[in-house]
Amino acid sequence: MTKVVLVSAVALIDRDGRVLLAQRPEGKSMAGLWEFPGGKVEAGESPEAALVRELREELGIETWNSCLAPLTFASHAYDDFHLLMPVFACRKWEGVPQPKEGQVLDWVRPNKLRDYPMPPADIPLIPILRDWL
Ligand SMILES: Nc1nc2c([nH]c(=O)n2[C@@H]2O[C@H](COP(=O)(O)OP(=O)(O)OP(=O)(O)O)[C@@H](O)[C@H]2O)c(=O)[nH]1
User: What is the ipTM, given to two decimal places?
Assistant: First the structure.
């Protein structure tokens, strides 16, 4: 039996239509790969509340449940767990995203997303983002 792990992620979109990617730091699983900000949903937490918390912790920005619009999701079988990852779009937040946890950040045009190596779960998201953003 595989454990299903719920991870909430977000496409933060700036005024120029670019998306924020974060590079996973050394020492973490899948280090060096680029991902969407977010993280595991904790017990008793909604996916939106988890993102509001993760964006505060990881990037030092504030956003609100009402600014998170459902966009798509990823469902991927890793060796040791099955990832279920709702992906929200967010165009409104307060503050300037900063790498609070040693990540490298980059604002990326949707048509350049495929130049950034991503975790396997994220690959099917690239054409969806390219079409929708
Ligand atoms: N935030 C985020 N996580 C992703 C993406 N794609 C993807 O496979 N994941 C996986 O979802 C999990 C997110 O966990 P997390 O961010 O809360 O915790 P973590 O990096 O410390 O995870 P770890 O326990 O694997 O080291 C990780 O296993 C991560 O590799 C993505 O685009 N964004």
Answer: 0.96
